[in-house]
Write a structure and sequence with these properties.
The protein has 8 helices and 10 strands. The protein is an alpha/beta fold. The strands form 2 sheets. The chain has a 7-stranded mixed β-sheet, with helices on both faces. A 3-stranded mixed β-sheet has the order 4-6-5. Helix 7 packs antiparallel against helix 8.
Length: about 220
């Protein structure tokens, strides 16, 4: 994990972790010497993050979700597998009956506070890297970003591949980006080069359903 993130992060960099879950990425970012702003709206998971990272002055923990506007949103809770809790009702509907998602049950809902990436930037500064893992809500998160970021990642799931394609287009509105893909938790980039939006969109659409998930990595190509 550290070897992959080292491509994007150096000591002293600022990193946003959107959807921090259990905090394994926070730990990696800190090992690389980054300062971290981490967002996790679920109370139980946020409590765990506070126990693990709450005494680290280089980590700011926010019990909030990210979206395309500030205020509140409804989070659908999966009590047995809270890492797939989501603000996307479409994601929940798409998971129903799909191979690899049997037995997943979003059995609760709660209102959570939300903010935008733009607001985080205005408060904490421009990050070198943003990690987004929000179960089908990635496009809404990126709609809240109007400033080009040097590099970022966002999750892809094959039950919500259209969302990933929309994310490519959203990023292309604010900058020129190249893309690569790491399947599952492999931490290995598939292409070994930065492909354009069209090539990555074709790749996403052609992924077999059984691929299930991975992360799209994006790097800005038009930086000064």
């Amino acid at each position: 994990m550290d070897a992959l993130y080292r491509k994007f992060i150096k000591p002293g960099d600022l990193v946003f972790d959107v959807g921090a879950h259990a905090g394994d990425r926070i730990s990696s970012f800190r090992r690389l010497g980054a300062r971290v702003i981490a967002m996790e709206p679920q109370p139980l998971m946020f409590r765990a993050l506070r126990l693990i990272h709450g005494h680290d002055d280089s980590v700011v923990l926010l019990q909030k979700a990210a979206s395309n506007s500030g205020g509140q949103l409804t989070l659908r809770i999966n009590s047995n597998n809270p890492t797939v809790s989501t603000a996307s009702s479409e994601f929940v509907a798409n998971a129903s009956g799909k191979e690899g998602w049997q037995g997943q049950n979003w059995d609760g809902a709660m209102a959570v506070e939300c903010t935008t990436l733009d607001h985080l930037i205005s408060t904490y500064g421009l990050p070198s890297f943003i990690k987004i893992d929000v179960e089908g809500f990635e496009h809404a998160v990126l709609e809240g970003l109007s400033t080009p970021i040097p590099a970022l990642s966002f999750e892809l799931t094959t039950i919500a591949r259209d969302v990933a394609v929309e994310c490519l287009a959203q990023l292309s509105k604010i900058g020129t980006y190249g893309f690569d893909f790491a399947h599952g938790e492999s931490q290995v980039l598939k292409f070994g080069r930065w492909v354009n939006e069209l090539e990555m969109a074709h790749f996403i659409r052609d992924l077999p359903h059984a691929a299930n998930s991975g992360d799209i990595y994006a790097i800005r190509l038009d930086a000064d």
